[in-house]
Write a structure and sequence with these properties.
This protein has 17 helices and 24 strands. The protein is of the alpha+beta class. The chain starts with a strand and ends in a 5-residue tail after the last strand.
Length: 521
Amino acid sequence: MQMCGIIGIVGTQEATVAPLIYDGLLVLQHRGQDAAGIVTCADGQFHARKANGLVRDVFYKRHIERLTGSMGIGHVRYPTAGTCSTAEAQPLYVNSPYGITLAHNGNLVNAEEQAHKLYQDDLRHVNTSSDSEVLLNVLAHELQKLGKRQVRIEGELYFNVQQLFQAVREVHYRISGGYSIVGMITGMGMFAFRDPHGIRPLIYGKRETEAGTEWCVASESVALDSLGFETVRDVEPGECLFFMMSGEIYEMQCHSDAKRSPCIFEYVYFARPDSVIDGMSVHQARLNLGERLAHKFERLKPNHGVDVVMPIPDSGRIAAMQFAETLGVPIREGFVKNRYVGRTFIMPGQAEREDSVRKKLNAIPSEFKGKTVLLVDDSIVRGNTSRKIVEMARAAGAEKVYFASSSPPLIHPNVYGIDMPSRSEYIAHGKTPDEIGQAIGADFLLYQDIDDLLAACSEGSIDIDGFDTSCFTGEYVTGDVTEEYLKLLEAKRNDAAKMERENGNNGEPVDVDSIELHNDD
């Protein structure tokens, strides 16, 4: 189970894509800081490098030079309920049929059931606890069932793309959850597909060179922008694309009842603000959130007396800017952020998170002294960070501290690939907003309304059928998330379980100069 960033590139025959994939992973680093990997394809062989750590620490010049080939995929991840071992770092691969490698962003809710079916019925063994390996083996099995029928185009034999589309169609009906996929079939081409609800983002673009057309698929449009690719469009929910090494692209809708229901937390927190997801600018969504939150604040506290609005860096900044402008109050930077500390809600233990907050932020006393300060953050999860920030504001001299969250209370687990804690660890679990405000030490606490959240993230989007708002409402778009599953997930996600996995982590890198994938026929 992972919240991740994925990228895949098909260049021209003269191109070496590893440096481009490396640069793309750097841009997607915010989507995962636990592990990184790249697999390229040249002369019928996969070349791989993956290890735990940041992109800049996993890949050195010598690694990139060994990753030869004009086609490749890359992955950055942090684990949710899975382990942190390098064995689960991606991309993953199987050698039958054809030789397939795959990178996955998301989480499957029926992974254990499908792993059992793979073993009992499909005679495939899954080596890790990764649901990504389950999905890869389901795809490989469905392809293997269809046999290896190639098509002849102008005298040359090529991979039968229709077989891939048929296999992906079967994957959609076997697998439930959130998944965006990019993968390769050795010597043939690159594929990409998205779950029938479009929960996790996926977008593709192209660029024209003197040698021909090159293609790029990525989790966010910012990766395309940074590499000089022109965005074509989002991969549709349920759709599969296949990019041949010769530059042709094939498209097929592989689900009969696909609906666009993207995860709304991408807009609130996870995605970069310079990305566009399903036609909606993340930056604009956060501006809208700030404006609507300010109007609610004016209704509830018309005589608020706020002297200054301050963002909690960095994800609260855009909403805070619009909040201050709407309210007609100055916005000031009161906290300095140490950019070399990771995201605190991902960290496994409460003590580690609280220690990280102290290292991550430092207050500027002159901005607080004697003022009524309104702090704006994107969300409140466990409340540890919020409480420490309120304490820091008071210690810096604030007379009153108001706190505003640009999202509604988080009270349910996210099961589709974002690492949220167990329900009992949410500060909003079983508490009213007033009780939460008291718990974090604020003089007043303001939450966004769910209707305003939906409206803020809908302006300019393309054909949105709805959003996955499950972490706020408990309504899961796949319709098959049971209480039993949620309890099992909570047991894996609580702090004690995470610390146990951390202590047992195996972080040895996987560095394979060439993997010749043999077929089984």
